[in-house]
Amino acid sequence: MAANKLNKKVTGVKSSTVAMFEGVFAAILGLGVAILYSLQSTITYTQETERLLGGMVFGVSVGIISMIVVPLVYFAIGWVIGYFHGFIFNVVAENSGGIVLRIEDQK
């Protein structure tokens, strides 16, 4: 038996949900950047002090701060950009007649 097919039209999205999605995605990217920065600063401080323990202490302390601050900054910037994307999507979708989705029931 064939599945029921139903077409639905999307004419807009909630801008804050797009903003939250892009903000969280940017925060995950920011965390990756912060981890790489932490590793780089640990290596740099270890080479400068010529002591492994001293380099790790200074590098990790800078890295921990960056792992908190950088994702928050990335989230804020991503949220603003996402809100703008949601607004632009709504303007375009409303003026172009929306986007038709085909939804099928599965068993």
Describe the structure in your own words.
The protein has 107 residues and is mainly α. Helices cover 75% and strands 11% of the residues. The longest helix is centred in the last third of the chain and has 45 residues, at 52-96. It is elongated and about 70 Å long. The model has no long low-confidence stretch (mean pLDDT 86).
What is the element layout, followed by pairings?
Blueprint: E1 5-10, H1 15-49, H2 52-96, E2 99-104
Antiparallel strand pairs: 1-2
Helix pairs in contact: 1-2
Q: What is the gist of this entry?
A:
By secondary structure, this protein is mostly helical.
| Major pleated sheet | 2 strands, antiparallel
Helix content: over 70%
Q: Strands of the biggest beta sheet: in what spatial order?
A: 1-2
The gross shape turns out to be elongated
Class computed from helices, strands and strand pairing: mainly alpha
Q: Distance between termini?
A: 10 Å
Count of DSSP strands: 2
Note the run of SSEs as H and E: EHHE
Low-confidence stretches: none
What proportion of the residues form beta strands (DSSP E)? 5-15%
> What oligomeric state do the depicted chains represent?
single chain
- The overall pLDDT, averaged over residues, is 86
Query: What is the tally of helical segments?
Result: 2
Radius of gyration: 23 Å
